[in-house]
Amino acid sequence: METVSLFETELDSFVHKYQIRYPEVITYLFDSVLVNKEYFAYAWTNDVKHFGIRTSNRVEGAYSVLKRFLGNSQGGFVECWKQMHKMHESQLTNIKAKFQQSLTFIKHQHRVSDFKGLHNHVSQYALDFIIKESERLEKSRSIAVNFCGCILFKTHGLPCAHMIVEYRMQSKPIPLSLIDSQWRQLNLVPQVASSNAGFDCLPQLQLQNKVGNF
């Protein structure tokens, strides 16, 4: 498990090994790369709930899709707006299809007692993460908190290995409350936090629909 102390130990070892042979590289490493280590090194990102998004690949991928819809740079503002709207409609269609699959279909590998209360309430993508986490238990009958690291819980809001063990020892399925709301959102209706219960977002949604029909 990556920790800050382990990162610093390995870094010291690396510097000691290569500083004499490659001083310019070491200087560049400290001046240009490690100044932002908290944003990409596992020792720090494993303590942040990022839902698996640790790079800009998703943004770059969306930009690539947009360029395919635009085709070229010859269109005006209205044409660009229409193509962007088509792209969003296509994405929404795909999202709705995945939501529907999670709501109505149960994968064979998800038909386990651990998921008894999660079927059709949690994204299948999230359940796949938990299945992978459960595979860690095959190497050990029990994983204590100190050895678990709780990385999946801290980064994805999903039960980690030691939590799964605790519920299995009690012969109980994983409770839905242990799943972050990110993975329980299986429709396109925005969730309103209890602290904002008095906020009415309907006018904004109506305006968005009008713009979308432009």
Uncertain stretches of 5 or more adjacent residues: none
What helical percentage do the residues reach? 40-55%
Order of helices and strands: HHHHHHHHHHH
Q: What is the terminal-to-terminal distance?
A: 52 Å
Describe the structure.
InterPro entries: Zinc_finger_SWIM. This is Protein FAR1-RELATED SEQUENCE. The protein has 214 residues and is an all-alpha fold. It has helices spanning 4-18, 23-33, 42-45, 57-70, 77-104, 124-134, 145-148, 151-156, 161-169, 181-184, 202-212. Helix 4 crosses helix 5 (77-104). It is flat and about 55 Å long.
Write the SSE topology.
Elements: H1 4-18, H2 23-33, H3 42-45, H4 57-70, H5 77-104, H6 124-134, H7 145-148, H8 151-156, H9 161-169, H10 181-184, H11 202-212
Helix pairs in contact: 4-5
Feature tags:
11 helices, 55% helix, 0% strand, mainly alpha, 214 residues, single chain
Produce a short descriptive summary.
With 214 residues, the protein is mostly helical. The chain has helices at 4-18, 23-33, 42-45, 57-70, 77-104, 124-134, 145-148, 151-156, 161-169, 181-184, 202-212.
